[in-house]
RNA sequence: GGAGAGAUGGCCGAGUGGUCGAAGGCGCCUUCCUGCUAAGAAGGUAUACGGGUGACUGUAUCGAGGGUUCGAAUCCCUCUCUCUCCGCCA
């Protein structure tokens, strides 16, 4: 959520930035400015009358102590109309605040100046490509067939007990999951992230804090009876650890990481592109979350970017880094880098990580601030990134590393899997 | 799920319907003092939104929301959460 004062004072710039995200209702900006104007005027009136009423009440108190009953009655005669005015104005004020809030949450975050214009994934800027695409053996198989061939993942069985998109990992397939999670967590720990294990359901306030709610209910599984949501990413619970918190400036940056399963309804997805592990309703992911000083957040974004790349390099996977264009970025982000790995048998790039700086968009909703020795509390910048999401990593490992003799596990992972081959 | 108790500032904790944005303690910050691993003294120390170039100032906030009252941390109602005991259970 953008800050009203910022919108008010930087109207032209806000409009210009929103255009980069192809925001469809720029008139909302002026509606917000108008509502804010009304709100402030109403507050001024309300405050003045409340002050008057407070003064009268205080005076009555003094007079009562002196036993001057008649004078008290004279003052009381006036307070009735003050009360009515206060009631009317505060109703107005609450209404205006509510409207303002409703409008504000509809504005997406402003993209960073480096974000290219564009309308779809085709307009994303390829920042770099790393590694060499493997030459596959003849009769190379896509990962879903490899998973069946080596009895690693059972999509049918998952279908039976839950539904499509909930695979069952078996034997070395299951061990590979566990190995990847531990590998990613160890790497995060080595980079000074503190590991946390958050709940995998969250309440509404948490969903609002990181920007999933309102409006994106359809992407999350909802437990109606208890009004809880299954998390779509660990970003939600981990960032919300700091909701309504004022941290000390010298504690920044605050680095947390965590492994969780993630749940996504993925309503409307279909076709060959969602086969196998390409798109699931439940998957595992290790997430990095940082709270940063505004002066440092872009440097930290680069560091996170580098961290994710180091994981892909360790896993010997060819990858590329994209700078997302305005049209492909999320509602909440200021700048996002996506990492995609090459899946050789499908001959496709698959997104495995998304690293973003949200600047103050989330922290404004979360009321997450920092305070130095002097001065007012300021909103922190929040950042997060997948490091990494498992399914497409597995897809790529299986497809890229298939040989006549089985599937080779990359060296860095062998201490975790305790096996070098799947065969 | 049943019964009871409770929710006050960073923490602990007091609070009679007016003198309470809130005693006291701890913590923290600044200054002073004392030459010694420390102690003492003074002052300061919530947040949001307004108004003012600024010093400053108004309003709101004692779990949340309503109500009673000229006036509510204090009285009433609803909700949420926490704790204790019982039940169930990994």
Care to describe what's here?
- This protein has an 8-stranded mixed beta sheet with strand order 1-11-12-13-16-10-9-4. A 3-stranded antiparallel beta sheet has the order 5-7-6. A 3-stranded mixed beta sheet has the order 8-14-15, with no helix packed on it.
- The protein has 13 helices and 19 strands.
- Helix 3 runs antiparallel to helix 4 and helix 5 (143-149) crosses helix 12 (390-400).
- The protein is an alpha+beta fold and 423 residues long.
- The chain has helices at residues 4-9, 11-20, 27-66, 69-104, 143-149, 155-161, 172-190, 204-210, 235-240, 297-314, 361-366, 390-400, 414-417, and strands at 125-130, 153-154, 168-169, 194-195, 201-202, 222-223, 228-230, 246-248, 254-263, 282-292, 319-323, 335-343, 348-359, 369-371, 378-379, 381-389, 402-403, 406-408, 421-422.
- Strand 12 (335-343) and strand 13 form a beta hairpin.
- 42% of the residues lie in helices and 21% in strands.
- It binds one RNA strand of 90 nucleotides through helix 3 and helix 4.
């Amino acid at each position: 959520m953008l800050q009203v004062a910022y919108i008010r004072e930087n109207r032209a710039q806000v409009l210009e930035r929103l255009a980069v995200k192809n925001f469809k209702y720029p008139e909302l900006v002026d509606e917000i400015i108008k509502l804010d104007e009304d709100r402030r005027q109403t507050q001024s009136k309300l405050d003045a009358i409340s002050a008057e009423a407070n003064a009268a009440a205080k005076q009555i108190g003094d007079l009562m102590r002196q036993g001057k009953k008649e004078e008290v009655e004279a003052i009381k005669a006036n307070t009735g109309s003050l009360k009515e005015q206060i009631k009317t104005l505060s109703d107005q004020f609450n209404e205006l605040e509510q409207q303002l809030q409703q409008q504000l949450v509809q504005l997406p975050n402003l993209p960073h100046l480096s974000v290219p214009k564009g309308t779809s994934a085709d307009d994303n800027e390829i920042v770099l490509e790393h590694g060499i695409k493997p030459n596959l053996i003849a009769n190379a198989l896509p990962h879903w067939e490899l998973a069946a061939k080596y009895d690693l993942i059972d999509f049918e069985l998952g279908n039976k007990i839950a539904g499509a998109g909930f695979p069952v990992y078996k034997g070395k397939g299951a061990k590979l999951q566990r190995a990847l999670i531990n590998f990613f967590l160890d790497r995060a720990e080595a980079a000074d992230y503190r590991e946390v294990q958050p709940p995998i359901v969250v309440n509404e306030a948490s969903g609002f804090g990181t920007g999933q709610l309102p409006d994106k209910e359809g992407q999350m599984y909802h437990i109606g009876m208890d009004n809880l949501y299954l998390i779509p990413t660990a970003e939600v619970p981990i960032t919300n650890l700091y909701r309504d918190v004022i941290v000390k400036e010298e504690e920044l940056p605050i680095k947390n990481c965590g492994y969780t399963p993630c749940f996504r309804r993925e309503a409307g997805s279909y076709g060959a592109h969602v086969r196998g592990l390409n798109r699931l309703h439940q998957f595992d992911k290790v997430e990095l979350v940082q709270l940063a000083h505004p002066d440092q957040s872009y440097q930290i974004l680069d560091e996170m970017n580098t961290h994710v790349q180091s994981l892909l390099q360790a896993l010997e996977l060819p990858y590329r880094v994209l700078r997302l264009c305005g049209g492909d970025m999320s509602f909440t982000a200021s700048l996002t880098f996506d990492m995609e790995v090459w899946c050789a048998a499908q001959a496709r790039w698959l997104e495995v990580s998304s690293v973003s700086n949200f600047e103050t968009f989330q922290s404004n909703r979360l009321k997450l601030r920092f305070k130095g020795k002097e001065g007012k509390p300021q909103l922190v910048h929040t950042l997060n990134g997948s490091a990494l999401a498992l399914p497409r990593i597995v897809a790529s490992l299986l497809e890229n590393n298939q040989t006549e003799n089985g599937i080779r596990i990359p060296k860095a992972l062998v201490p975790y899997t305790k096996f070098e081959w799947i065969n």
